[in-house]
Design brief:
Layout lengths: L6 H5 L7 H15 L8 H17 L2 H10 L18 H7 L1 H4 L31 E7 L1 H6 L1 E12 L15 E2 L8 E6 L2 E6 L8 E2 L12 E12 L8 E4 L15 E7 L6 E3 L2 E9 H6 L1 E7 L2 E7 L8 E4 L15 E8 L6 H16 L3 H14 L1
Parallel strand pairs: 1-9, 11-15
Antiparallel strand pairs: 2-7, 3-6, 4-5, 8-9, 10-11, 12-13, 14-15
Helix pairs in contact: 2-3
Length: 383
């Protein structure tokens, strides 16, 4: 097995080099050994990976400290690349998006416009169709049980007349003579190679001399479609569902885009949600709270009997275990939390008033420990 080179040696920096110096050194090596500048050169590709491995370790303070103490042995159990598994060149582009941009040749990195993007050999890469978004409204119970909703939306579909080519019947798009079908043109300016969108075909790579009359050369037409969306049980308000391949088609033989459904759950008059728990409030009378009782409590699964203990106080919490929302990740179900609301009657019948007055007399003669403590506290405050 070949001995690994020292990371500082690979990047050509001193061991006390600052982060900016390390980044600058890596940029130079990445530019030098970039696959688009060295097509088919296995040695350059190996050095490109080697520089990425060194930079991944030395740019991270924790990894760098471990490397300074233990050398390459610090990562023998953590992957051959200091914890980052660069199994191919595209992994490097993705890992260092701040350097290369979004995928090797564009998207905000320092190499934007310098390279056409790795792996294409100068050919246009297949692009996925556009993804779409929609809103799906469901009620509280549907979020608990799950449901299926049929949504209607307008999206582009391949033109049935030209099958998406954009060309009139009996004709075909022709390869753009300016960019030779690449969609980009490359201009060398000294050390750099700059890529720009082809001005003749607009990046399409082809030219339509006789457009399809049905879609006017666009290759697509707007169509109203109906899609059934399966809503899983336990979904929460504001969740997003991804429906693969229900977006718009690609005009470059790539995959369809996706459909992203944003879920909005209507509020319920009786139930509320707290995590996976269902919360509700149940009224009881003064007598029920004092003497205890058994209540018939509504749940989203039907009715459930719940015992109220004697001496229950206003706001006291009871739990119905496992009566809450299912967990989307397969965990335990939530509970139904029942808050007791003791109702004080606003109007009394003559008989009720008589009984309450008798009860008041008994309370004065037999003061409970809690009430006696409060009375003593008040007396002490005013004395």
């Amino acid at each position: 097995m070949a001995t690994k080179r020292d990371y500082y040696e690979i990047l050509g920096v001193a061991k006390d080099a600052k982060a900016d110096d390390i980044k600058s050194a890596y940029r130079k090596l990445a530019m030098k050994y970039h696959p688009d500048r060295n097509p088919g050169d296995k040695e350059a590709e190996a050095k490109f990976k080697e520089a990425a491995e060194a930079y991944d370790v030395l740019r991270d303070d924790d990894k760098r400290a471990r490397y300074d103490r233990l050398g390459h042995a610090a990562f023998q159990q953590g992957g051959g690349y200091g914890g980052a598994d660069f199994s191919n060149i595209q992994d490097i582009f993705s890992h260092f998006s701040d350097i290369f941009g979004g995928g090797g040749g564009g998207g905000g990195g320092i190499f934007d416009g310098l390279f056409s993007g790795f792996g294409g050999g100068g050919q246009r890469q297949q692009q996925a169709g556009n993804s779409l978004k929609c809103r799906v409204n469901i009620n509280f119970k549907e979020s608990f049980t799950g449901c299926a909703k049929t949504i209607e939306l307008n999206r582009n579909e391949l033109c049935e007349t030209c099958k998406g080519s954009g060309a009139a019947a009996g004709t075909q798009p022709k390869r753009c003579p300016t960019c030779n079908g690449r969609g980009q043109i490359h201009q060398s300016q000294g050390f750099f190679s700059i890529s720009t969108v082809c001005p003749q075909c607009g990046g399409a790579g082809s030219i339509i001399e006789k457009p399809c009359a049905d879609c006017r050369g666009q290759g697509v037409k707007t169509k109203t479609v109906r899609i059934q969306v399966k809503i899983p049980a336990g979904i929460a308000d504001g969740s997003r569902l991804r429906i693969p391949n229900e977006g718009e088609p690609s005009l470059q033989s790539g995959p369809r885009g996706d459909l992203f459904c944003y879920i909005f759950v209507e509020e319920d008059k009786f139930f509320q949600r707290n995590g996976n728990d269902i919360v509700c409030q149940v009224p009881v009378s003064v007598a029920q709270a004092a003497l205890g009782t058994t209540l018939d409590v509504p749940t989203l699964q039907g009715r459930a009997n719940m015992k109220i203990n004697p001496g229950t106080q206003h706001g006291q919490i009871y739990r119905l275990r496992g009566m809450g929302f299912p967990d989307l990740r397969g965990g335990a179900k939530g509970d139904q939390i029942v808050a007791v609301a003791v109702e004080i009657p606003k109007k009394l019948s003559p008989e009720q008033e008589k009984l309450y007055r008798e009860l008041a007399k008994i309370d004065d003669q037999n003061v409970s420990p809690e009430r006696k403590s409060f009375i003593d506290l008040v007396k002490g405050y005013f004395n």
